[in-house]
Amino acid sequence: MTQDISELKKIASQVRRDIVRMVHACQSGHPGGSLGCTDFLVALYFAIMKHDPKFNMEGKGEDLFFLSNGHISPVFYSVLAHAGYFDKAELATFRKINSRLQGHPTTHEGLPGVRIASGSLGQGMSVAIGAALAKKLNGDDRLVFSLHGDGELQEGQIWEAAMFAPHNKVDNLICTVDYNGQQIDGPTEMVLSLGDLKGKFEAFGWDVLEGDGNDMEKVVAVLQKAISHTGKGKPVVILLKTGMGYGVDFMMGSHKWHGVAPNDEQLNVALAQLEETLGDY
Amino acid sequence: MQKTMKKYTYTDKKDTRSGFGDGLLEAGKRNPEVVALCADLIGSLKMNDFIKAFPERFFQVGIAEANMIGIAAGLATSGKIPFTGTFANFSTGRVYDQIRQSVAYSDKNVKICASHAGLTLGEDGATHQILEDIGMMKMLPGMTVINPCDYNQTKAATIAIAEHHGPVYLRFGRPVVPIFTDPDQKFEIGKAWMVNEGADVSIFATGHLVWEAIQAGEILAEEGIDAEIINIHTIKPLDAEAVLKSVAKTGCVVTAEEHNRLGGLGDSIAQLLAVNNPTPQEFVAVNDSFGESGTPAQLMTKYGLDAVNIVKAVKKVIARKKQNA
């Protein structure tokens, strides 16, 4: 655990290198959303959550994280590896045969740090609510965090969950929306507009925070603020503005790098923009 | 010429869903980790007693079944043993992907408890009468699929699945039916129950069709046919040993279930026999159609799911066996 912003930035730079190298190595996977959410996940695992890399599925006495938009598995795996859940060398097996690092995260192969399979979208908020309810039943005052894509909010199950949590005062839950405005077929505003997202969550009874997802200092700050808003009778949601592909100039701001891997030349251009801070896997 | 059939009588009738409700209360008393969720059908699922006893361990999710399955998966992640309750249709087809990813693939200890399965839901009609649920659930790797036959067996099964680690689909029904199994039975998941030993045909029945199979057995005994009747309450994992042992003796099979003939118990038995001991088989099941409105008894007759049709199927399959001999 560190609150040192420059330390967190170093980790984030290495995680971004891992992401582009992982998707390049298997020529598949989702770099865009992974790069955009890197600062959030690094902040969460290195500055915010109390968690134990020895990994126990039930996680009693720990803060828990559920990744609902499972396609950004590269960033999740890299962060888990750097946090000590498994050896960094295993990142080289991503999406390859007989690997624990499946294309989308799963508990099925026993990878430490993963508590639910995700990839089919819209399910993670419900799961996070269930874990939060269990914490209340157990008298466990730690928190539950989750991450969702903004395009994912088009799934109806999200709004079933969004209705349930305030009604039941699930106030030990902090959901974050990766608000990058992009999805596979184009900008969300073109595919299916999310409209007034803040107003929607507020109308459902959530405590809504907004933040900048690619400025480490601000990411840590909004997460800390969110924690201070827990325990007050409402679930908390952070609408986190991120740039898809953030950190690699030619991937930034476009849905085109949602699920495409860089070629050899593109990899080298990308790596030249990302400092190797902790050693490549 | 006349054969003897073990006598089954009943003094009381109840719905299997009441067996679930009473079993859930008992499971809740035995293990504080047992919790329950319902999607706006508390009365139909008979969950009132559990809620009264353990209000803090019950979650009303409203008409939002997908969310219910996800919340159950989250509760299970943190060590709870969640029982979800709604109609069989909304427990399976409506939430197949949620069960597949968040429960089965994630290996969560969730008990999906489904009432009003099959035609015997009655007057509500085909929108609510699911006949495909066993098939959907048994195809999921790691899922246990149980369809008990009366109140006592449903109660025992409900208690048993709380003690079993892993996802379970427990299927039961709406109508009041005879209680003929032992009230003190120990329910063993995956272990078939020998209802009546016989030599001429193996009748494998599940759910409400077990009582019909017993009625059929009595008719057959009077006509000199010695039917072996086995209750397959656990469709997955199938008790292969019991099935193969019986078939080795009788040489022909009738399966009986309140389900589409595609994907149900009959399919599971046919697949087992195709590999191990190819055997003439007849299927008493719904013939790849939807149901419709009507009383349960009218529907079971119209769709051929009764003792009369089991008797017909037995005669047909015995004739096929003799032809092959």
UniProtKB/TrEMBL annotation, chain A:
Sequence ranges assigned to domain Transketolase N-terminal in this UniProt record: 9-268
Gene3D superfamilies per record: 3.40.50.970
Cited InterPro entries: THDP-binding, Transketolase_N
UniProt entry keywords in alphabetical sequence: Thiamine pyrophosphate
Signal peptide: none
Cofactor(s) in the UniProt record: thiamine diphosphate
Entry-linked Pfam families: Transketolase_N (PF00456)
Family, as annotated: Belongs to the transketolase family.
Protein name (record): Transketolase
Organism: Mucilaginibacter limnophilus
